[in-house]
Amino acid sequence: MTVTDLVGAARGDVAGLRALASRLRRAAAALPDPEDAVAVRAAADAVDVAAEGLRALPAPPPPGAVVEVETALARDLAAPLAVLTREGNH
To answer: How much of the chain exceeds pLDDT 70, in percent?
Structure first.
């Protein structure tokens, strides 16, 4: 999955990721389970880090740089997603 897959080509990667992080934080605030809320906030933080990583890249980005940011995002989302997909939580 790429950043564009997450946020859509029309949004722009950085703006789209920032919007996604904002939506995740709003969703976390509405969750009744504190552990789930912490996981969703952690996912939002990971998305913010990815947005910052993309924003920091020079234009045009060096070959492989965007993939590195996407790979780091996937790695950073692993723990929050594991909490949210644990048995009995779906």
So the answer is: 82
